[in-house]
Structures are given as structure tokens and as C-alpha cells.
Amino acid sequence: MSPNGGECMLICGLVLVLGVVVAVFDLSLSLSLIKLGALFGSATMVANIAHGFLHHLVLHPDRVQNMKTTLHGWRWICAIAEGAVICVFSEWGRVVGLLERGEYDLLGMRFDWFCGVWGEGPRRQEMKNNQMRAVLTVVVFAFLVHVFA
């Protein structure tokens, strides 16, 4: 099971907080942790946006061909990016709700909106998409660390 965007942002936040706490003992280590946390948060957002482009423009353009929309060209690109950002913050909202309710054991678990109504297809597709986003996050993070660390 791979973490979703909200869970990745939780990890990012924990690393940032750890960096701030460590500042009392070792400023150099603290700055490194803060940089890693910021890079991981950036990688999460970039990977989710890249996956949105990949999903809508390359892998499944046929799914949006019959949509009745007035958006075309660069506005369509912006809408895809905005949708990816909204998705990450929606997942973050779910993570915050789990933490507020003390349901820590549900972190990493997925909520199936369709509850098997359409068989296993939507669940498998979402798991595959989540794995692709996780791999993209790791690749972008590795690139950012190589460039900025």
C-alpha cells in the first residue's frame, strides 16, 4: 500500500517539525531536515500534478473527449493542475480528520467510495494510480535532492 498525497504531506510536516525541534541541539542537522521536508512536500505536489497531466492527456484522453466543457488549451492544462492540487488537499483533509478522531490505525487505508458497486475495477484503478503517484513522488524527490542538496 502506497501513501496518498495527504499522507505524504503528513510525513513532510513531521520531518519539518523534527527539523525545528532538532535546531535546539544541532543547527546543521536541523537545516538539512527542514530542507528535506520542504523538498518532499514540493515533490509530492509536483508528482501529483504530473500524474494528473499523464492521466488526462496521455493515458486516458478518451475519458474526457465527450465532456461538455468550455476549457481548451492552456486553461485545460491549468484545470488539470488545479484538480491535482485540490485532490492532495482533499486527501490531507481526510488525514486531519483521522488524526483528530484518533484513528491512527486507519492511516494508509483507503476509503472505497463505490463500495464494490462496479466490481473491483475502480478500486484496482485507484490503487494503480496511487502507486504511480507514489513512484513519481520518489523520483521527483530524488531529483530535487540531487539538485538542491
Automatic annotation (TrEMBL):
| Protein name (database record) | Uncharacterized protein
Looking at the UniProt entry, the stretches that span the membrane are 7-25, 37-59, 132-148
Lineage at the top is: Eukaryota, Fungi, Dikarya, Basidiomycota, Agaricomycotina
Arranged from A to Z, the UniProt key words for this protein are:
Membrane, Transmembrane, Transmembrane helix
